[in-house]
């Protein structure tokens, strides 16, 4: 039998290596990134970095999202029953490079999605951040399945999902984005049979609904 790599072995034994889990504050590092549960101020910062590609692909303006959070103190973590959000920062500079979310939709499955800021794309940051968020979802929050959906013509997104091991699954081929744009949709899943809940403080979004 092929030997498991060191990361896989560590994930199996201890969950996500190096993860700091304190209440809603969760922080984990990869070679170049620090990924943590986003706070209001992080999403406000991300909104300032939004470009047209993010707005178009997500079908919503991050500035509008940040505007809706304006009433909350800047250090409130973005973690609700419907959605948990992470930001990824470059460790060497503190620069914000990506925003990823775990969220629940009507199907009651846990979805993952996100965006990398324009100046940081195609440097492997998207993959690095998504690997950490998937590991957290499976090995810390205990979710066996993570679902993703992307526009069929979004090659970057398809390649991004494939790069961390998402595989195609059947699903509704049409999705309407928040701005009303109907898109041809591909569905993906990431399955971890060794998923296990280790977190003592956070519930995965939708967990109460999905696994009562
Ligand atoms: C999709 C997105 C998150 C990818 O992030 P990224 O940091 O650029 O991706 P990475 O550099 O980690 O690359 C991951 C894989 O995707 C491929 N890729 C990334 N951008 C690509 C592009 N524009 N065209 C073709 N392939 C691309 C890389 O080559 C790599 O593939 P490999 O593992 O086979 O070498 C980023 O392009 C983005 O934020 N786009 C705008 C918003 C968006 O589309 N979000 C997703 C909505 S579902």
From TrEMBL:
InterPro entries on file: Acyl_CoA_acyltransferase (IPR016181), GNAT_dom (IPR000182)
Cited Pfam families: Acetyltransf_3
UniProt xrefs under SUPFAM superfamilies: Acyl-CoA N-acyltransferases (Nat) (SSF55729)
Domain N-acetyltransferase: 33-193
PROSITE patterns: GNAT
MF terms (GO), sorted A to Z: acyltransferase activity, transferring groups other than amino-acyl groups
Protein origin, superkingdom: Bacteria
Protein name: N-acetyltransferase domain-containing protein
Lineage start: Bacteria, Bacillati, Actinomycetota, Actinomycetes, Micromonosporales
